[in-house]
Write a structure and sequence with these properties.
The complex is a heterodimer. By secondary structure, chain A is mainly α. Chain A contains three helices and no strands. The chains are: A mainly alpha, B mainly alpha. The interface between A and B is large, with 42 and 50 residues.
Chain lengths: 81, 145
C-alpha cells in the first residue's frame, strides 16, 4: 500500500463523484460514473483486493455503464438539476 | 490526535462519498441522478469493507505459495500477518453482484415510469399524479389527443 498513490486516487474519486451528480447531461454523468468505478477499481488493486478490483472493472465500469447508456437513450437525456 | 485522524484517511473519504451519494438520492430531482447516487453509496460501502481488510507492514495478496517449501509443509509455515484479510473481499464480491442487479431492475423501472409519465423529473411526476387523483385529465393524455 503506497499512501501517495492512494491519496491521488482518492482525490480523483471524490472529484468524479461530485462531477457525476452535478452534470446536467445524463450521458456525460453516466460516463463520469464509469470513470469513478474505474478509479475505484485501481484503488482496490493498489490495496491488494485484486478479485474485487476485476469484478468491479467488469461489472461496475463495464456492464453498469452500458445498461445506463441504454436506459438513458430510451428516455430523456437532459435533466433539470 | 491529528496523526491518528490522518492515518485513517480511507475512512474519511468513505464518509465523504457516502454523504455525496446520500445527497444525490435525497436532494436531486431527476430519477437517473438518484440512481447514480445510489451507485456511489454502494461503492463507498465496498470501499469501507476493503479498507478494513488492509494490513500494514508488507502484507501481500492472499495467495499461498506452495512451491517454496513443498505442499506437505504449507500449513506449518503460514504467517497470518503476511497476508491481507480475504474475508471482506469475498463479502464485497457478493455486494458488487447485488449492486448490478439492483441497478438493472431500477433502470427497467425507470423506462416504465418514462413510458407512463413521459418525464423522469420527480416534481413533474408528482404533479401528474396529483392531477389523476383529483379526476382531471393528466397532462400526457391531454398533449397526445
Amino acid at each position: 500500500m503506497i499512501w501517495q498513490l492512494d491519496i491521488i486516487l482518492l482525490i480523483f474519486i471524490v472529484i468524479c463523484a461530485i462531477a457525476a451528480i452535478n452534470i446536467k447531461d445524463l450521458i456525460g454523468a453516466v460516463i463520469i460514473l464509469g470513470a469513478y468505478s474505474f478509479f475505484m477499481c485501481l484503488l482496490w488493486t493498489e490495496m491488494g483486493a485484486v478479485d474485487v478490483a476485476f469484478t468491479e472493472a467488469a461489472v461496475g465500469a463495464g456492464i453498469s455503464t452500458v445498461l445506463f447508456i441504454g436506459a438513458v437513450n430510451k428516455t430523456a437525456r437532459r435533466s433539470k438539476d | 490526535m491529528t496523526e491518528y485522524i490522518l492515518a485513517k484517511y480511507n475512512f474519511w473519504i468513505y464518509v465523504v462519498l457516502m454523504m455525496i451519494g446520500l445527497y444525490a438520492m435525497m436532494g436531486k430531482r431527476n430519477l437517473v441522478k438518484k440512481l447514480i447516487g445510489m451507485n456511489i453509496f454502494q461503492t463507498s460501502i465496498i470501499l469501507l469493507f476493503v479498507s478494513a481488510g488492509v494490513k500494514k507492514g508488507g502484507a501481500t495478496v492472499p495467495i499461498l505459495r506452495h512451491s517454496d517449501y513443498g505442499p506437505e509443509h504449507v500449513e506449518h509455515l503460514i504467517r497470518v500477518a503476511d497476508y491481507l484479510n480475504p474475508l471482506p473481499h469475498v463479502l464485497m464480491l457478493t455486494a458488487i453482484v447485488v449492486s448490478i442487479a439492483t441497478t438493472g431492475v431500477a433502470l427497467a423501472t425507470l423506462i416504465l415510469i418514462y413510458k407512463r409519465y413521459n418525464t423522469l423529473e420527480e416534481d413533474e411526476i408528482m404533479a401528474i399524479r396529483k392531477d389523476i387523483r383529483s379526476y382531471k385529465t393528466p397532462r400526457i393524455l391531454r398533449s397526445k389527443d
